[in-house]
Predict the structure.
Amino acid sequence: MLNYTPGNKNLNQSKTAIIVLAMHRSGSSLLTRMINLMGIPLGRSLIEPNKDNPKGFFEHKDIIRYHEDLLNNFGMTWSYPLNLPANWTKSSEAQFCKNLILEVLQKEFNNETIFAIKDPRMCKLLPMWQDILPEFNTTAKYITIIRHPLEVAQSLYVREKLNYEISYLLWLKSVLEPLPYIKDSSCAYITFAEIIQNYQMAIAKIGSNLDLHHLSSFSHNNYAVKLEIDESLYHNKSSNIVKLSGSSLENQVINIYDFVQNNINDYDTLIANLTNAYNWLNNMTQFVNPVLLYLYNEINTRDETILSHQEELLKSYRQIDKRDKALNDLYNSASWKLTEPIRKLNKKLIKKFQDHFNE
Amino acid sequence: MQIRVPTRQDEKMINLFLDKNLSHQEYKAINNVENEYFAKNGALLLLEDDKTLIGLIGAFEQSPNVLTINHLIINENFPNLNYDQDLFQVILNHAKRLHFDLLEINIPYISDNLNNFFKSNHFNYANTHKLQLKI
């Protein structure tokens, strides 16, 4: 049992990192905040709240930036559903990222015995963290929060019009890909629905599964915590689940979610079946990945073409504006206005001349 | 870069520009922009970059249906920037606005580049020795 006292100065003691793993829009911010309110530090430099997460993301600003930079170096973003290149953890880019993250950990958590980190990108980048944490004398404990894939897909569609099928694939990968790295560690699974139904019980379950005593002893009298969590829960109310695309991938992710929900408290069964699903995904990915990679490259090329056409169009609009302005300037110029009587006179003279000639 | 309508105060600068850019050929200096262009339903437009004259176009009414372009010059230090197209397009729009039927080129010396430019804008020698564009 780990006895945690906030503010302990244990420079040389081994540390514990609570890693929150989740697909985007799965309630991981809420869960991380709950953990944080129980006294587990997240670092000082957190991403500011915005309209997508008015209460905050509870993600470390620098870590997110380094994760994003690393994915960008491989031509990816968080919404890229394909695998990272083989042996990417050995790449110079990954090594560079590791060093930067180690600096952040030193700066933020050197005096702590326990801390938490949350970033949905970690589901993809977990292999790199397996190298980072031992170097920081830290053991990881994992919390995986899973939300119904249709709610996630709906939320991502509303937020950024992300295609449902891509959301499902991302959801599937976020649930399954961390498995090989976490199944032999201290690990807890929780659904977003469990938190919504009874967050005190959900926190206590995590505390018990991860052997974190201070999470198990959630204070029911901590009104500040209750108030903040209750308010957040109100904003995260679960919606009615309606099938979105009817695709076989949609059915597959719903089946997996249903299985997770039904077996959430039977860890061995859950891990065994998720491992089977992971193997299935891995096999499927080996076949599908090259095709998807080709299509993604194709899309990227076309996006670039569209972008360059848009730039040209914008340039043309600017030119048209410039020419219209010049024409307006001409008709409003003193020279044009001054010579108007002469133009009128000329017109009359020409007409008179023509009339005379016709007679 | 901006297109500007000149006044009589600009005539000296315009003639210096013509002299510099048309030194290899004969040309008629501009004595009165208002009489020579604006009074004749035409226009003289200056193209300036940071208050430096880098190009101009001039056109005037030749007859009730014909607008004649007698100058289209871009300083050779500013090639391939479509400045000639910018100037020409304003005159073309002006000709359309004033219901001219024909745009005609009456420039004493038409270089290959200028010839290509007018051809790319659909001018041709239709039964005449002058480049023309039906509007």
